[in-house]
Amino acid sequence: KNVSIYKAQASALEAHAAPNCKVLVVANPANTNALILKEFAPSIPERNVTCLTRLDHNRALGQISERLNVQVSDVKNVIIWGNHSSTQYPDVNHATVKTSSGEKPVCELVADDAWLNGEFITTVQQRGAAIIKARKLSSALSAASSACDHIRDWVLGTPEGTFVSMGVYSDGSYGVPAGLIYSFPVTCSGGEWKIVQGLPIDEFSRKKMDATAQELSEEKALAYSCLE
Length: 228
Ligand SMILES: NC(=O)C1=CN([C@@H]2O[C@H](COP(=O)(O)OP(=O)(O)OC[C@H]3O[C@@H](n4cnc5c(N)ncnc54)[C@H](O)[C@@H]3O)[C@@H](O)[C@H]2O)C=CC1
Ligand SMILES: O=C([O-])CC(=O)C(=O)O
Known about the structure:
This protein is an alpha+beta fold.
């Protein structure tokens, strides 16, 4: 059903939208809906079609700020890799906290790998489901607020030294198959996003990044099979 909805939305954009419009897909499955939209709106450049993983990014910042008892605005550079689903990989290996003695790595300050590699990841992965369970409705204000964050940073740029997570069309960076909409760390400037390059990826992260890519490949195949 989503495939036909996003095919129709794409056709409407193709017919009526400015070719330089920016598209943020929120509705789930967000990454694959964005991929279908990109496919059926060929006049809109693929770099103008994105999906929302900023809510997951903000949740990860929130978990770290609570754990360390610091302001959420002092935490930065967490990464959400992959799908906006429970296979996403929230990664704090490159995240830092502003302290009175300068910026410190989150891993060093938390100093609890079992929590970072376990409960932290599952809490962020399952936050959407936990909210639905509690409210019988999905996240509303936090989702809307993160959509504003996504668009604001895309249009106005990310602060120097800060990256954010966005679901964007993969160019094969970090060994992620090209042709998926995958959440990467990005910086934005002049209305364009750019995938942050050259971050070291350890074996634990590699496995988690591959698992969420695998799920996206399967979703893509399923979506395309609905088009036949
Ligand atoms: N990417 C993210 O971080 C998040 C994604 N979501 C997703 O956003 C979507 C919306 O969530 P809610 O607003 O809570 O759901 P909702 O059920 O309150 O609203 C969905 C709306 O879509 C409309 N709709 C249904 N079929 C349509 C069609 N063919 N064309 C146009 N409109 C149609 C319905 O009338 C309804 O108003 C869901 O898919 C949800 O899973 C929600 C929160 C966060
Ligand atoms: O599944 C949903 O509708 C909720 C969701 O995406 C989220 O809160 O991250």
